[in-house]
Amino acid sequence: MSKPHIIIIGSGWAGFYLADYLSPTLYTVTIISPRRTSAYTPLLASAACGLFNFYLAEEPIRSKSRKCRFLKATVTTISFPTKTIHCAPAFDDDTDPITNQLFDLQYDYLILAPGCIPNTFGTPGVLDHALFMKNVSDAMATRKRLFDLLEKASLPTCPPARKSELLHIAIVGGGPTGVEITAELDDLAHRELIDLYPDVAPYLHISIYDVAPHILGNYERKLHEYANERLVRRHVAVETNTRIEKVDREALYVKGKGRVPYGMLMWVTGNKATDLVMEMHDVRKSEKGLVRVLTDRHLRVFKSGSTDEVWDDVFALGDAADIVGASLPTTAEVAVQKAKFLVGVFNSRKGEEASFDGKAAMPFTYAEKQLVSYIGSRDGIIAGRGDREGWTGRSAWLAWRSGSVMWTRSWRNRIVILLTWILNWVFGKEIAKM
Q1: DSSP string for residues in 64-118
Q2: Which of 198, 201, 188, 194 is nearest to 149 (CA)?
Q3: Mean pLDDT value across the chain
Q4: CA-to-CA distance for 80 and 83, rounded, in angstroms?
Q5: Is 198 exposed, middle or buried (0-12, 13-18, 19+ CB in 10 A)?
Q6: How high is the pLDDT of residue 401?
């Protein structure tokens, strides 16, 4: 008798963990994603700024030790009644006829983890001119853009005013991602670039723009005010209560302020649902804020409408899903904890147990972890929890840095990252190879 077929849609934190740990002796597992690697998103800013090699910030889905089938494709539609998914190969600018041939797959169990895409809020010009920070390709583009700007500003024909425009890094989004990118770039500017580009590095300046009244809104007031003060002290312009009206190739346009030239624009404002989630009309979805597929506490997907019926053998987790009555943030920690729960449920199945429906004896519960953010210059903030207050300083930075290492699933990568940090500390970053 053939093993049940599990299809996982998405290769982010949740999907990749499931592919890694679902039992290959019990199931045939297929993972479908347009990307052949899974990014360690907390490490992307560090990789972009040269703390370690790019390959350490991602993991290939195909592996000798990972017994799953991978298809580089996107899922276009799903027929839940017939347990069929409709797919399209994901190869950009490929004219080979085979990449245009659609195909269908049947599943016994379906796990939805398609993640989200960057939210531009419909701001004109963002998709054409901004950089994002979702995967290693984005980190590589950021590094290339930064050093192209430094070399351009170093040309003898570049006047001072133009140097200042080229070396203005505008970061839209004052959440943890935006602040951590700012911190890594600021560290790079003051530790390495000042020596390698002494004539132009002083022109480099960073601005953070956010529509909210303050940055790092998930932290208590004392901590986000501390972060704001520290960034301003290092000459980072923190522009809150700011709305970006449009973007072009050389400038962003701020409401009430007008045209602001930039050399590099990074857009890290939040998430938006994928086309697949938006086009799923047979499932219940959240009505406010980010559109997410709604599940029960066993991560089973509700049918559309107000009914409490769930689709047989369909589960959802990651940024694209949320639990009715127990909403959780779109973080890697939440995604991984849900994935661990679902792995435990599936791997507890005994033999060819016909009545298995994926429902655990106990529902999923989230073990809350403390928020940690890096704010630059070996300084950080850690949110309080319960009766314990949050704290700041070098110990918070060390907690953030060590936590970043533990996100990688490979002990080999963890060791290489630690060795790279030691070499960087002793000899400085190999900036010439960037």
Answers
A1: TTB--EEEEEEEEEEETTTTEEEEEE--TT---GGGG--EEEE-SEEEE---EEE
A2: 201
A3: 91
A4: 5
A5: exposed
A6: 82
DSSP tag of 389? P
Evaluate whether 116 touches 292 at the Cβ level (below 8 Å).
Answer: no
Please indicate, yes or no, whether the overall pTM of this predicted structure exceeds 0.85.
yes
- Nearest-angstrom CA–CA distance, 189 and 201: 7
Helix axes 394-407, 411-427, angle to 10 degrees: 140
b/e per residue 406-434 (b: at least 16 CB within 10 A): ebbeeeebeebbeebeeebeeeebebeee
Quote the pLDDT of residue 308. 87
Distance (Å, rounded) from C-alpha 109 to C-alpha 236?
A: 49
CA–CA separation, 176 and 24 (whole Å) = 37
Q: How far is it, in rounded angstroms, from Cα 286 to Cα 92?
A: 31
Q: Which of 279, 234, 217 is nearest to 78 (CA)?
A: 279
What pLDDT is recorded for position 341?
96
Residue 315 has pLDDT above 60, yes or no: yes
pLDDT of residue 386: 66
Contact 86, 32 (CB under 8 A): no
CA angle centred on 124, ends 119 and 125, rounded to 5°: 90
pLDDT at 430: 64
β partners of residue 205: 168
Residues 262 and 105: their CA atoms lie apart, in Å, by 47
258-297 residue pLDDT tens: 999 999 999 999 899 999 999 999 999 998 889 999 999 9
Q: What is the pLDDT of residue 399?
A: 86
**Which residues sit opposite 314 in a β-bridge?**
110
Inter-residue contact 173 to 123 (CB < 8 Å) = no
Which pair of structure tokens corresponds to residue 104?
A: 């269908």
Query: What one-character DSSP code corresponds to residue 329?
Result: -
CA-to-CA dists, residue 260 to 263, 370, 413, angstroms: 10, 36, 41
User: From CA 231, how far away is CA 238, in angstroms rounded?
Assistant: 8
Q: Is it the case that residue 95 has pLDDT exceeding 90?
A: no
Backbone angles phi and psi of 114, in degrees to 5 = -75, -5
